[in-house]
Amino acid sequence: MGWFEQAEAAERRQDWDAAIALASAHAECFSTEPSRHDSHLWHMKLLARAERFPELTELALTDVHAGRALNRSLRERGMEGPLRNRAEGGDRGALYALVRLLCETNRTQEAHRAVQDLGPDDRYAHQIVADF
After folding, report:
1. What 3 state SS string does 53-97 have?
2. Is the distance from CB of 124 to CB of 96 less than 8 angstroms?
3. Residues 108, 109, 113, CA angle at the centre, nearest 5°?
4. Quick one: average pLDDT of 54-69?
5. What's the pTM?
6. Distance CA 77, CA 16 (A)
7. Tens digit of each residue's pLDDT (9 = 90 or more) over 70-91
8. Are 75 and 100 in contact (CB under 8 A)?
9. pLDDT digit string (tens) for 2-18?
């Protein structure tokens, strides 16, 4: 069994340490080799599924894929506080995830206030609220 199959098997067992180690060893952000870039995206997904938020947060400082995986995972888990903190720090993706989370949980007024407080000139954030 090759590394990919081993990593898939580890993911199915939720053996995050093994799956993450195998995927990260073959991962490269924006690689010219599609398989290495795909492994990088998978690595970010595995970190999110393993709820390794501190590691994703650190990677997100220089890696857009880590930031996206982190914001998506925080939204899926309903973690409003960390999303708000990231949005307050200037992460527009976190703002959009926060606004969607608030709207999806029938808190449209709170979403509108978040946009007013964190991105008053952000047309996309306003559009997210308007779409709900």
Report:
1. HHHHHHHHCCCHHHHHHHHHHHHHCCCHHHHHHHHHCCCHHHHHH
2. yes
3. 115
4. 96
5. 0.90
6. 18
7. 999 999 999 999 999 999 999 9
8. yes
9. 999 999 999 999 999 99
